[in-house]
């Protein structure tokens, strides 16, 4: 797309986000006050994700690289690489039977309207605060006890250097898995870095490849889990990008 069309496309994102957040955010916010109602709120959150993802002209192809299946009766720590804001939509789309709770940066609370809903349904972390980072484990454990699975992007954010294919993983997802005996569902997203980058003058609608890599069972060694997940996603990116 030309630069002008790209900016118009991104402007459509703001309109879409505003409308969907107003229409769906209010009932989600109300439902969030009762923990038992989160499964209903999650259905609305999924509609929001569908609307944002497909409303921007994106679609996806799911490719299984493992014979393992997601068990609807277990809670998971869901991880993937992180290259675009649209990465955030995909886990909700992929997990209809597992209410997901995201671990996200505290700065997003500042976004008008969205931030009000965000702080009710997500575990927020202030990356500059050691206390906040440490408290994430407790708050995630509470969410999992309520029947939710947890989504973490182990890179901790999108690297500023766009030449980085996969940034170093943080420990959080793997420590959480080990501490709370929760398996890790590993995914690799390919295509969004080019289709929906953070540069507003670039991007285009298209089909994202979603690779379901593996389910890693929890162990006593978060370091080994981290290495295994990193190498798995790195290999997928190298072979299929």
Automatic annotation (TrEMBL):
Pathway stated in the Swiss-Prot or TrEMBL entry: Lipid metabolism
Chain ranges passing through the membrane: 12-32, 44-62
The entry's keywords: Acyltransferase, Membrane, Transferase, Transmembrane, Transmembrane helix
Domain of life of the source: Bacteria
Phospholipid/glycerol acyltransferase domain: residues covered: 76-192
InterPro entries assigned: Plipid/glycerol_acylTrfase
One Pfam family matching this protein: Acyltransferase
Molecular function terms from GO: acyltransferase activity
Name of protein: 1-acyl-sn-glycerol-3-phosphate acyltransferase
């Amino acid at each position: 797309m030309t630069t002008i069309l790209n900016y118009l496309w991104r402007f459509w994102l703001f309109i879409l986000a505003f409308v969907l957040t107003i229409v769906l955010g209010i009932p989600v916010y109300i439902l969030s006050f009762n923990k038992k109602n989160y499964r209903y709120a999650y259905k609305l959150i999924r509609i929001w994700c569908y609307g944002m993802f497909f409303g921007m002209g994106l679609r996806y192809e799911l490719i299984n690289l493992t014979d393992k299946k997601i068990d609807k009766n277990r809670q998971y720590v869901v991880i993937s690489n992180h290259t675009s804001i649209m990465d955030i939509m995909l886990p909700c789309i992929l997990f209809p039977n597992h209410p997901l709770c995201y671990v996200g940066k505290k700065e997003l609370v500042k976004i008008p309207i969205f931030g009000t809903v965000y702080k009710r349904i997500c575990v927020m972390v202030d990356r500059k605060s050691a206390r906040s980072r440490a408290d994430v484990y407790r708050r995630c454990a509470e969410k999992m006890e309520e029947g939710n699975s947890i989504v973490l992007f182990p890179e901790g954010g999108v690297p500023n250097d766009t030449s980085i294919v996969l940034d170093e993983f943080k420990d959080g997802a793997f420590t959480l898995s080990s501490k709370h005996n929760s398996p890790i569902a590993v995914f690799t997203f390919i295509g969004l870095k080019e289709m929906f980058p953070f540069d507003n003058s670039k991007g285009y609608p298209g089909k994202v490849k979603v690779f379901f890599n593996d389910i890693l069972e929890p162990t006593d060694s978060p370091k080994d889990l981290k290495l295994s997940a990193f190498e798995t996603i790195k290999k997928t990116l190298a072979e299929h990008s």
